[in-house]
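Per reviewer request, we include the raw input and output of the structure prediction for the construct analysed in the revised manuscript.
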Amino acid sequence: MRSAKPTIYDVAAAAGVSKSLVSLVLRGAPRVSDASRRAVEKAILDLGYRPSRAATSLASRRTNAVGLLIDDYTNLWFVDLARGLNDVLGPEGYRLSVVDVATASTTEDPVDGLLSSGLDGIVVAMDVPDALLGPAAPPLVIAGTRERHSTAVDSVANDDRRGARLAVGHLLSLGHTRIAHLPAGGGAGAARADSAASVIAEAGLPWFAAAPSATATEEGGYRAALDVLRRMPEVTAVFAANDTMALGALGAARELGYDVPRRLSVVGYDNSTLATARLVDLTTVDDASVEVGREAGRLLVARILGSTDEAVHRTLEPHLVVRGSTAPPGASLSRRRGGGGPL
C-alpha cells in the first residue's frame, strides 16, 4: 500500500511518458496524442493522483513568468542580455527566471523543469535543446548566434562575423602583421574565428590561433594565451573570443613580462562592464548585448500574445570601441589610444 501521496513523477512513470507531457495533459493542452492522454488519465485514476491547485489553474491563465536558459553563468554577456530582457519584460508584467544548465541540480533535467513549470515563454541563450523544439515547448526566442537552432523559431543576434572583421581590421590598421586569435566554442565563437581567419587571409598574413578553449572563461583565455605566446613569440596582437578570455590574455601577458599595449595589443568582444574598468581599459567589440536582450523580449512578448505568425530573425550591428589595450607594435606610451569611443 502506498505510504505517500503520489507525485507527478509517479504518474509519468506509470504512464510511460515524461513529466512535461503529464503537465500538458493537466493543462488541457491540445498538442497531446489521444493515446498519451488516455495513458496519463488512466495513471492518474489508478494512482489516485490529485494535482495541486496551481497546476490545474495553468490551463485557464498565464503565469506571467519567462525563463532564460543559459550555459555559463560566468560569461558577462548573459548579464547584459538579462538586463535588456528585464527592460522589456518588467513593464509588461513578466518575471524572469534564469536557469544555467552548467550549475543546475543533477536530480532533475533543467529543460524538463522549465517545461513543467508553466512558463509563458523561454529565451534560449545557448544551443537549443531538442526538447524545446517539441510540442511541449512554450513560445521561444533564440538569443545569440547558435550552432544548433531552428529557422522556425524567432531569433536575434549581433553580426558576429562583422564584429570579428572590425576587431582584426583595427589591429591591421595599427600595423600588426602577427595577430593571434583565442577562440571559443559555440556558434558565436565559430563565426568570430572563421571571420577573423578570413580577414587575415585576405591580408596575405599568417594565421596564428590557439586551440579552441573548452570554456570561454578567464582561465581558458589565460591558458590559450600562454600557449600561443610561448609557441609563437613573434605575435604582437591578440584577438580574444570575448572580454573574459581577453582578461585571461592580459594575465598571461603580465606573467610573461609583456607590456600591454607596447609589446602586445589585446582586443576582446562584448564590451562588458569588465572592458570598461579603468584598470583593464580593453579595446573590444560592442555587440549590442543589452539591445539583443530587449529585442528578444519584444519578440517573445509578441509571440506569447500571438501577434506574429512567421518566424522573425533579426541581426544587430556591432561596433568597435577603442581603448588603451591596443597600439601600434612597439608604440611608446605617449602613442597609446585610450578612452576611445565607437568606430
